[in-house]
Amino acid sequence: MESMNRMDNAIIAQHALAQYDINVVSVSPLAQSGAAVFKIEDNRGLLYSLRVHESKSSTLEKIWTSPDVLDSELVWLDALNRDTSLTLPVPNRNQQGSYVTQVGDMNCTLLSWVTGEQNPYFTNEQELKSTAEMTAALHHHASKWQPPSSFIRPTINSARIQTALDLLKQQVRDGLLDAHDVQILEAAGERAMSLLDTLPINKLTWGVLHGDIVPPNIVFVNGVANPIDFGASGFGFFLTDLAITFFFIHPNTRQHYMDWYGMHFPLPNDYVAQIDGLFIALRLVVIRNALGMPGANNWLPTDVKKSAAREFGRYANGEEFLFTGTPFWE
């Protein structure tokens, strides 16, 4: 079935590419998560990324693949290309002048390829420092940018966290996850939702954010971090971007990261409590999406058990965990 889906997406990619003014010489499938991604080369040697917006996860909300939402992602990316010095993917319009190309009931988008070094994890302190500075640059832009009235991107809020908790409880009823582990996740999630509902919303705390600043979504060009894959971008608290990056940073290094970020964009006084709560909220969303991935039953129960015994357990007990303790991935 997976090979058949890959074949179908390859056919869709060929139909989509015919709607752009480029002379394609090669189409290479790369991966599929939130979308099936193809690396494209034209007759001039220029490289592109074509995305066929079909998620591999059955639990990802459908809003992420709607035309208006996809168009808004690329509107923001276009603004970032105009207004910042970051090296970024450049969105391409099709022959009809649209960022979103429809092939049947499937939506596709085409961006320029960012050439540089990518790693599955951070390899040195300079990469962390540059990523913190890059994140601050994105937030600085978002704090001043006014989205057009047609701009639609999802919001990271309590409703999405509650949906994740409801799905986790269903997995307990189905026998996939341990009831005690999920009770801990639920207690921590409820505390995180209460926090989200009380945080102040203003130009320095809230706006459009990348939503998935993790090592595979960062390209290093001459040692400078630049973001790719804006597919998870949406409205939320700026500290959300730091919380998800901390999935990949050991607790004893996170304070340095905060210091580097804080030199370029202001941190609220209670940033530790906020990031703790956002960390929990985002982990629940990630676990929810993972539940819809093929083969999740093989590894997710262990991931949930570790999380319950570590960050979620401490947060449910009213403790801070950002700078101490064993991370869920160890």
From TrEMBL:
Pfam families per UniProt: APH
Segments forming domain Aminoglycoside phosphotransferase: 68-262
Molecular function GO terms recorded: kinase activity
Keywords of the record: Kinase, Transferase
Membrane in keyword set: no
Keyword presence, RNA-binding: no
Gene3D superfamilies tied to this protein: 3.90.1200.10
Transmembrane segments: none
PANTHER family associated with the record: AMINOGLYCOSIDE PHOSPHOTRANSFERASE DOMAIN-CONTAINING PROTEIN (PTHR21064:SF6), AMINOGLYCOSIDE PHOSPHOTRANSFERASE DOMAIN-CONTAINING PROTEIN-RELATED (PTHR21064)
Stated family: Belongs to the pseudomonas-type ThrB family.
Protein name from the UniProt record: Ser/Thr protein kinase RdoA (MazF antagonist)
Naturally occurring in which organism (per UniProt): Paenibacillus eucommiae
